[in-house]
Structures are given as C-alpha cells and as structure tokens.
Amino acid sequence: MADKEYLKLCNHILENGIEKEDRTGVGTKSIFGYQMKFNLSEGFPLLTTKKVNFNLVWSELLWFIKGDTNIKFLLENKNNIWNEWAFKKWIESDEYTGPDMTDFGHRTLVDEKFSKQYKEQMTIFKERILSDEEFSKKFGDLGNVYGKQWRDFNGIDQLKNVVEQIKTNPSSRRLIVSSWNPAEVDTMALPPCHSLFQFYVNDGKLSCQLYQRSGDVFLGVPFNIASYSLLTILIAKECGLEVGEFVHTLGDAHIYKNHFDQVKEQMSRTPYSLPELKVKDFESIFDLKIEDVEIVNYESHPFIKAPIAV
After folding, report:
1. Which domains are delineated in the chain?
2. Pathway membership of this protein (predicted)?
3. Alpha carbons 258 and 262: distance in angstroms, whole number
C-alpha cells in the first residue's frame, strides 16, 4: 500500500538521517539513495494518512504536459504551489515598491505582523498575474522549468517522442525524458528536483521509474508519487497498455526540521484504502483538459499544514 511504503521512508529518515544545512537555512535530516515501488494496479497511490489535493497534482502535471512555464495557468486553476518562486522574482525587482519582503519564507513563520503584509502583497501579485498580461509575462514565468524541458529540450520534444517510441518500439531501453538540462539550469526559478524518468514495457504493462535528485519528503514527495503515477496511467491508456509499477528513486531525501512534528503526526495515523482514478476517453495526452481526469472514492485523514522552504 502506498502509505505504508511512504511512511517507511519517513521513519527511516527520522531514525537514520544525518543533520544537514541547506540553501534555505532551515536545515534537514537527510539520507542519500532510497527507492520505493508502487503497484499501480492496486489503486491510485494518493496518500490517505493526510489529505493530498489531487486537483493540484493534476493541474500541475497538465501544465508540464502543455510545456507551459508561467504560473498564470496554475492560478486560473486555483493552484498556488509555484507562487513563491515567481513572487520572489517580483519582490527582488526594481518594479516592486511595497514593504520589505526579504526572507519572506522564514519571517512569515515568526512575525504575525509581517505575515499579514506578506499575504496582502501575495494577493496583489496574483491578481496582477491574472489581469495584467505584460506583468504576467515578466513575473509569472519561471524560466525553462519542467514543461519547457519535457516539450523543448534544446529543440527536442522529449515527451512526444517517448510516447511515439512506446507505441512503435516498446522494448527500447531509451524511453527517457530528462528535465535536467545543464545548459539551462541557471535560467530556471528552481532547478528540477525530479530530474529524469524512464518508461519500461513488459507483458503489456507500462512502468515508470523516476530519479529525483532532491526530495522534500513531507511536502513534495507525496505530490511526485501521485503525479508520475498519473502520467504513467495516462500514457499507458494512450498506448493501449495496462499499468505496471511506479518506481521512485531518490537521491537526497530529506525532511525539513520544521516538518518533524507534522511527519510524526502523519506516521501515527492508520491508512485508508486507496482511491480510484476516473479518466474520460481521449486520443492524445496533449489534448487532455482539466475536466477529463478526476479522483473517486478518496477517503483520507485531514490536511497537515507545514511551511514551504523557498
């Protein structure tokens, strides 16, 4: 079961991880090299020991599939998970004239007055992204992040090519999409954490392995599990295949120090049965719309809030 596999990772990090400083200044417990496997025929691996917002998972994945890199699409679909990186670009620009937002990720946790100011400025920022096309182009774009690399890696549409290869040469060992483009890493708001994935066809079933160089285990990894499982299911459907496994291989798997209590709370909970995925008929993943995919029979424990490290 998905929760059992994931919580096993959490426990392993808490018990065996080493304390490390990191670029955010928060600090982590970290391990290097870990693998989880999820049998996709047993149910969709959306964690049940805390609620995971499937709409955020799906809208972000569709954003990647479209090759989009601007948060406007996400905001139009009530998805705020990339806001902080775009917001940072704005508040560090000469065009920003509001109150000092330096180190907003940490200050919102300890300063109630500042937190209110931050929320006000973030609201202004989001409204301008949605209503001002010029502002959106300048500050909503995150650079050459995932969608750009999937659909235009130095002129190559990797995702389209790999779908064609699965259909025409399923035994290939080259069914790979890489988000890690050394020539463009410096142009990205955040270098790709989930950096490379490979498909594998056997006995009429499609499996996928993700290599993730860096994993925020509490906030990010549950989304990554669901997102790449969903991508595998959708591509399998287009290619006329059944689903196999999602294999999740992590490099630096870490829990931030200000997530320890939340992780322990989640580990104390008993998992529910996994939900099911409902997908409308489609010809190509590149034609999919938000309303074409939904989760059904999802029973979970409540959300557990935790700060994001930017």
Report:
1. 2-69+145-296 (3.30.572.10), 70-142 (no CATH)
2. Pyrimidine metabolism; dTTP biosynthesis
3. 8
